[in-house]
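Let us walk through a complete example step by step. Step one is to write down the protein sequence. Step two is to encode the small molecule, zinc ion, as a SMILES string so that its atoms and bonds are unambiguous. Step three, shown after the inputs, is the structure prediction itself.
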Amino acid sequence: MLFAHDTEVALMAAAALVNTGRGGKEQLPDPAALGDFVMTQGWSGERTGDQAELDAVRRLRPRLKRLWEMNKDDAVTLVNALLREGHALPQLVKHDGWDYHLHATPADAPLADRIAVEAAMAFTDVIRSGQLDRLRRCGAADCDDVHVDLSKNQSRRFCSTSCANRTNVAAYRTRQAGRLSSSA
Ligand SMILES: [Zn+2]
Ligand SMILES: [Zn+2]
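Step three: the predicted structure of the complex.
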């Protein structure tokens, strides 16, 4: 494993959140959709479930997205700002069958603050270990999603297997077409 388990989970969650606002379709159109997303990502803690909470989470997305485009110094500035704004105070906690891991916000902090701080904490690991280049954009021509390459040999190019398959099929068809026309 490249990073601690909770760091990797948090990085994947941050990418998933960024991607809910990409691809030309709002994937968090209402508080109920946010509720589903929070459940899928396994975020614990309190929620208000209202529009203000949704708006705050949506406002966080473009800020997190910038981490995929920034150099190290700018990423540090943003991560520090997120930690400061969210009043981060790292504590080891155990809950819901998870062994000890870090929470840097209390369970009753606003959802967007908890998400921001969890992501920022994970990015401190990425930055400290010099792994910022693992933040990638999907290699599929028709996909704009981001991902974090957590593979051992830094070989992950696509956000999902469907994007990988689609690209491979397209490349195969192109090769086949070239073969057919050259043998004709
Ligand atoms: Zn936890
Ligand atoms: Zn993709």
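Step four is interpretation. Residues 57 and 99 are 27 Å apart (CA to CA).
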